[in-house]
Amino acid sequence: YKQNNLRLRLGCQYHWHNRNYECFDHFLEGLVSRKRKKIRRERRFVRDQKIHIRRLHGSELDDMLWQQVHNFYVNTFYRKNSLPTLSLGFFKELGTMMGSQVMLVLAFYDKKLIACAINFLDDSTLYGRFWGCLNKFHGLHFEACYYQGIEYAIEHRLSSFEPGAQGEHKISRGFLPTKTWSAHWISDSRLRVAIEDFCRREERLMQHECKELMSLSPYRVN
Questions:
Q1: Does an H or E element contain 112, and which?
Q2: Residue 148 CA: distances (Å) to CA of 48, 143, 186, 208, 220
Q3: Residue 8 scores a pLDDT above 90
């Protein structure tokens, strides 16, 4: 990267790693009691609200479901005063061209689709990329975006699950702080000097922050 005048920037995300778990309960056994009970309680909230969860690959969705999923995407961007750039055709093309590499978590209430989470996967990792819902249901975000992904990764022998950037609340749910790097090219030499100085100072802080966050690990110490 140096020979291409790229500047590295350190970041921190929260990733889950498969420790050869046999099932979700096996994963929970590795957590301290308080965190284990919290996750079970959150999952129970979803069941008690009579919410039905389905996991489907992109190739399994029909046109009507893709339309509903796209509506979630559009509405989420509008609520955040942002412009949705991906068309319904793009979503359908994902199902056609990458069907087995797209995994959707669909939540139904009274037979109506109320929320969805879109994930992508390769041979080793599940990547969480989008969440949308109609109304707020207690615990549903955690179930659809985290716990269903962990279960899927265990069932399909994936080594890791990256649910997306940000969110220290993920730590207590089994996602540990993980250092990430991005490379940046700055064309203006004067601006490049200032940014490189910032990145050096930021990196020292990020190294310290990652270490501090790791102390919040919910896993039992063997």
A1: strand 112-121
A2: 17, 6, 40, 31, 22
A3: yes
Cβ–Cβ < 8 Å for 158, 21: no
Copy the structure tokens of residue 83: 């412009």
Q: What is the pLDDT of residues 153-207, one digit of tens each?
A: 999 999 999 998 888 999 999 999 999 999 999 999 899 999 999 999 999 999 9
Task: Tell me which DSSP letter residue 1 carries.
Answer: -
pTM of the model: 0.92
Q: What is the signed CA dihedral for 32, 34, 37, 42, rounded to 10 degrees? A: -110
Q: Is the CATH code 3.40.630.30 the one for domain 2-214?
A: yes
Domain boundaries, the chain: 2-214
Tell me the CA distances in angstroms from 198 to 9, 12, 72, 171, 186, one per residue in order: 10, 16, 37, 27, 13
Cβ(174)–Cβ(218) below 8 Å? yes
